[in-house]
Amino acid sequence: MLRTARYLLSSALLFAGTLAAGAQTLELNAGHVLSAASHYHAAAAKLAELVGEKSKGQIKINVFPAAQLGGEVKMIQSVRTGTQDIVVTGEAPLENTVKDYTVFSFPYLFSSVDEANKTLQSPIGKEMLGLLPQYGMVGLGFISALERNTFTNGRGIKTAADMQGLKIRVIPGPGYVTAYKALGAQPTPMAYTELYLALQNGAVDAAENSPDLFLQDRFVEVSKTFSLTKIMYMPALIIISKSRWDSLSPEQQKIFREAAAEAVTFAIDHYKKDYASALETIKTSGKVELIEPDLASFRATAPDVYATLLKEFPQAKPWLDKIKAQ
Q: Most buried residue, 12, 112, 184, 259, by CB count within 10 Å?
């Protein structure tokens, strides 16, 4: 009888200990607007995997793709207020809050994805991440920049003159709106989740994005041309809520820093492979016309566009000088 009582007590204590251990597990939610095939998701999933491993299961990150937690503007605001833990986002929606980031809306700031990524992983990138805490966010790292090309449901874009009057969906970032307006287009800020239908029903004539996302998000179904205009190279980054960050122990913060560094490298490689594969698919599918436009005509517009942007966003000037001085 006594042995049975001891056994039951021991079992109860073991069960209680298991519950206590489970209660100590920290769960965080991460969101992004792209599909589970994207490099945004690759970054978030790899971060979740590595944080789980490095914390021995004591930290769990739940990843919600495809705007399940809302659009980028909403998620950024939720991270700032602490109601969402992590977001993987393009930088353009951050321009509404972090005005210095408008420098990334300057057309032809970089000549390639590799050049953009080199800057983002340099001390300049670290400085720019360092701007975020004052806005309630902590930047865990820049993942690969996205090459922004132009696709249409009508006429193709072959020279800068073809941008005149083009009603083009742009990311809701002030720099993007100003830049495309200066190029002669009619920029239409719109949530990414609304774009497919807008192209389908003719609410917009065009949009801009990377080849991989053009395929992954099925815009190939509602487009006639894809033009390699390479106007911008938009950085993307992993952000954690500052309130959540401040609640972590130094050891937990170290885990996140190490995991994020590995996730960044993984996502950069993921994007590079997806980009090459998608471009080859577009070339060979015959579903849309692939255009390699006269980039000289676009680059010739840059001085006037820069002047317009600097007039509206003077805080971008020091960053522009740093990037150009590299």
A: 259
Domains by residue range for the chain, with CATH: 25-273+281-325 (3.40.190.170)
> CA 148 to CA 104: how far, in whole Å?
12
Confidence class for position 160, pLDDT limits 50, 70, 90: very high
DSSP 168-215: EEE-S-HHHHHHHHHTT-EEEE--GGGHHHHHHTTS-SEEEE-HHHHH
| Structural tokens at position 213 | 């996302």
**Which of these, 116, 22, 131, 110, lies nearest to 299 by C-alpha position?**
110
3-class secondary structure, 242: helix
pLDDT of the residue at 326: 87
Whole-model pTM? 0.91
Task: Identify the CA nearest to 324 among candidates 109, 131, 127.
Answer: 109
Query: Do 320 and 106 meet the contact criterion of CB atoms below 8 Å apart?
Result: yes
3-state secondary structure of 62: strand
Whether residue 267 contacts residue 117, with contact meaning beta carbons closer than 8 Å, is answered with no
Report how far residue 25's alpha carbon sits from residue 42's, in angstroms, rounded to the nearest whole number. Answer: 23
The residues pairing with 86 across neighbouring beta strands, listed in sequence order, are 30, 240
Identify the residue with better confidence: 21 or 129.
129
Give me the mean pLDDT over the 47-62 stretch.
Answer: 98
CA-to-CA separations, 54 to 35, 61, 86, 251, 269, in angstroms, rounded: 26, 12, 18, 10, 22
Cα angle for residues 288, 33, 291 (degrees, 5° grid): 20
Supply φ then ψ for residue 16, to 5 degrees: -65, -40
